[in-house]
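User: structure tokens for this one?
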Amino acid sequence: MDRANVSGNRIKEARKRANLDQVELAVALEVEYQVKITQSDISEIERGIRGVKDYELDYISRILNVDPTWLLRGNNNEI
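Assistant:
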């Protein structure tokens, strides 16, 4: 199966480093940016099943305090 996104693993890593669970990330997206993404959506994004819209990736990066380019490409630098 082809992956629907390339950032899922890094989103999961950054979310865990931020000490947020999937529900907390989903709530933060809705409260801070009025973006409705469910816990199930977050799970599917992290597993590469669901794609991520550009604005979703931007907001996720803001909440997780990481560079959106890192979420897309990764690198050897620390988050």
